[in-house]
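Quick one, probably user error.
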């Protein structure tokens, strides 16, 4: 069966830019999606971290590229992965996507994240991230959407993940997600340690970044207080000078 997401005359995803060269489309995708992801890092996307919210992330990131941005895929799919012997992860069927993704998100939202150690947070985030990614809700862009969603989710729960770590190691991240979801009819071959490693490191760096930010804000506040004190001192000196002058005139 022909893939309805492709152009009729080439195996390139239909896109708003009319690009029919795969490499050119990939470059455009990177440019537009990186800009959108950066915008989201500065201005969080409102929502309840449910499936609709997850779809909203995909819609925002890929709105300039695909007409179907934010819309779950309607066909089955597979991608040959070298790390698992050129077979594909068994992604969800189209009619399972909403239910399976919702199940994962409900578990995520129900966890008591603030009561966990960093190691426990990393372990659970690794599990949830792998489960949500394995659904593969969209025809393209699942890794970027999942990572961006999780970065904002952790912020909302008082945790911080270092976004740059995932950006700089995007190929490693995707390979780690594949390794963490390698479950097939003939056996469970999952290796979650690679995904856990980068998730844990991102949390550690996130904490470090938060401390640096708090320190910077503390310095700004300290400098502000000193400035106000100096202004106060100047005003007091001026007032004293005025009073002294008036006293002399009265004499």
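Nope, works fine. Designed sequence:
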């Amino acid at each position: 069966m022909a893939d309805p997401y492709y152009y009729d005359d080439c195996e390139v995803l239909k896109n708003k830019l009319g690009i029919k060269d795969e490499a050119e489309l990939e470059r455009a995708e990177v440019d537009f999606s990186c800009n959108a992801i950066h915008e989201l890092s500065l201005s969080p996307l409102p929502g309840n971290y449910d499936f609709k919210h997850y779809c909203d992330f995909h819609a925002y990131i890929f709105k300039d590229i695909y007409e179907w941005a934010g819309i779950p895929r309607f066909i089955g799919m597979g991608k040959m992965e070298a790390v698992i012997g050129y077979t594909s992860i068994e992604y969800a069927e189209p009619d399972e996507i909403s239910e399976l993704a919702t199940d994962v998100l409900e578990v995520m939202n129900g966890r008591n994240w603030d009561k966990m150690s960093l190691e426990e947070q990393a372990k659970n985030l690794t599990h949830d991230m792998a489960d949500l990614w394995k659904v593969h809700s969209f025809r393209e862009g699942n890794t970027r959407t999942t990572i961006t969603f999780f970065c904002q989710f952790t912020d909302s729960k008082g945790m911080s993940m270092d976004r740059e770590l995932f950006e700089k190691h995007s190929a490693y991240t995707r390979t780690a997600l594949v390794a963490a979801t390698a479950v097939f009819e003939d056996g469970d071959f999952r290796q979650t340690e690679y995904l856990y490693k980068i998730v844990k490191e991102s949390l550690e760096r996130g904490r470090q970044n938060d401390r640096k930010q708090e320190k910077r804000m503390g310095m700004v506040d300290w400098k502000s207080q000193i400035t106000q004190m100096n202004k106060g001192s100047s005003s007091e000196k001026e007032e004293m000078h005025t009073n002294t002058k008036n006293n002399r005139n009265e004499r």
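The first helix runs from residue 22 to 42.
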